[in-house]
Specification:
seven-stranded mixed β-sheet; TIM Barrel; 16 helices; 35% helix; M1 Pyruvate Kinase, Domain 3; 470 residues; alpha/beta; elongated; Pyruvate Kinase, Chain: A, domain 1
Length: 470
């Protein structure tokens, strides 16, 4: 049985070799994430390995370029790590020198000038807390308020209740977008956006067959969420930084709210951060982690993501297996109680959405085994996926990058094929695909949906109910 929710694995040393990549794909990985916050010097050779795995497994694999954005980071420190004692005095300054047990570079002089006594500086995704006690020019004096604090190279910095405007792509992000386009990435993930402006700017720099994922990580994004959802292709609930900004106890309700909102507006949603954190070091997950994955699937997430568990973890294959097994178990329950999970979307007086809602209603008939979606741009595939039909979704596109992009969507199995040049050719292509799908038998029904005239993106306006073998 195939799962419908998808899995993203973050690339890192633990899974760089071809054998491991192939193993993960077979276990259930649908997309790989390139984290541009870290070193990407040899990434082109790794992408080539992924594309080789794609050919050998006949499974379209999405590549996601996750941009760094304006995530604040400290500089480098002597011996890569220094232990800072509780209540020890510690300095953050704008100097470029290597840090030590008493100070470290924080290369943002404008921010250092604005910091005030009492401000908190959180290090390493909120693990360690420093409280500002005084200033000298662009040097900030603090006290360490965490036990067993380990200050490491380039760790993240978060300053609660401290507004930093971020409405333009950084020079690094623009450079990384060019790299992502060259690598053939299918998605760009925007970090720390506060409104729709970054999305609109990024849209001009990427190819038309690439999608945009907007990472929700701060209060500003939540305030502007409707405009962000409207402008983007997908949302990622990046719960780590979001929890630091709004408080850990607020994240569960925000997660549910965002998944519901994305569902209503036919946008896919990814749930990320610490889903199987314990499996970085252990070969089994905690019950709480299993429940976390299941909750995301119950709520309607399209995709769940592994970060350090895959990139640097000791047990990446076990982590993927655990995630796949949990998804399958949860989806089995949802199928058995389908009336409790049918979702509704806003049609917005959009005739295309109305047509695809009809597809969904027909697809709940148990004799309908699949929905075949001809989709040049991927838009129809996204809408059908958002409907959450009971039948399997098979998308057909002449554009290999669209096939890879939509493979990240809930329930979608994508096939790369020539474009139909007419009605008869569409049926011929459909029959070719059906013959290769083992779960479809003679006399089963298949829904075929496409746009007429063929070759024009975004014009889905036709449904055919086809009985296999006729």
């Amino acid at each position: 049985m195939e799962k419908k929710a998808k899995i993203i694995a973050t690339l890192g040393p633990a899974i760089y070799n071809e054998t491991k990549l192939k193993q993960l794909v077979k276990l259930g990985v649908d997309a790989f994430r390139i984290n541009f916050s870290h070193e990407t010097k040899n990434i082109s050779s790794i992408v080539k390995r992924i594309r080789k795995v794609e050919r050998s497994t006949d499974k379209k694999i999405a590549l996601i370029a996750d941009l760094q954005g304006v995530k604040l980071r400290v500089g480098k420190i002597k011996d890569n790590v220094q232990k800072i004692k509780f209540n020890q005095k510690f300095t953050f300054d704008a100097k470029k020198e290597l840090g030590d047990k008493n100070r470290i570079s924080f290369p943002y002089p404008k921010i250092l000038k604005k910091l005030k006594k009492g401000n908190k500086i959180l290090i390493d995704d909120g693990k360690y807390t420093f409280v500002v006690t005084g200033k000298t020019g662009t040097s900030v004096k603090t006290l360490c308020k965490s036990q067993n604090c380990l200050m490491r190279n380039n760790k993240s910095v978060h300053i609660p209740n401290f507004d930093i405007a971020f409405n333009k792509l950084t020079i690094k992000d623009k450079k990384d977008i060019k790299t992502a386009v060259k690598l053939g990435c299918n998605w760009i993930a925007l970090s720390y956006l506060q409104n729709e402006k970054l999305i609109l700017e990024a849209r001009k720099l990427i190819k038309k067959d690439m999608g945009i994922i907007s990472k929700i990580e701060n209060k500003h994004a939540l305030r502007n969420i409707n405009k962000i959802i409207k402008a983007t292709d997908s949302i990622m609930i990046a719960r780590g930084d979001l929890a630091i900004d709004i408080g850990h106890s607020e994240v569960p309700k925000v997660q549910l709210s965002l998944i519901k909102k994305c569902s209503q507006f036919s946008k896919s949603v990814i749930v990320a951060t610490q889903m199987l954190e314990s499996m970085i070091e252990n070969n089994t997950a905690t019950r709480a982690e299993i429940n976390d994955i299941a909750t995301a699937i119950f709520q309607g997430a399209d995709t769940v993501m592994l970060s350090a568990e895959a990139a640097i973890g000791k047990f990446p294959t076990q982590a993927v297996s655990t995630m796949t097994e949990t998804i399958l178990s949860t989806e089995k329950y949802k199928r058995e109680h389908i009336e409790d999970f049918k979702n509704s979307i806003f049609s917005d007086n959009d005739p295309v959405k109305s047509i695809l809602r009809s597809v969904k209603n027909i697809a709940y008939n148990q004799n309908v085994k699949a929905i075949i979606v001809f989709s040049n741009s991927g838009k129809s595939a996204k809408l059908v996926s958002a409907m959450r039909p009971a039948a399997k979704i098979v998308t057909i596109s002449p554009n290999i990058n669209v096939c890879r992009q939509v493979s990240l969507l809930w329930g979608v199995q994508s096939k790369n094929s020539r474009d139909a040049n007419g009605w008869k050719d569409m049926m011929s292509i459909s029959r070719e695909i059906i013959r290769k799908l083992k779960f479809i038998k003679k006399n089963d029904f298949v829904i075929i949906t496409a746009g007429l005239p063929f070759g024009k993106a975004g014009m889905t306006n036709m449904i055919r109910l086809y009985k296999v073998g006729t």
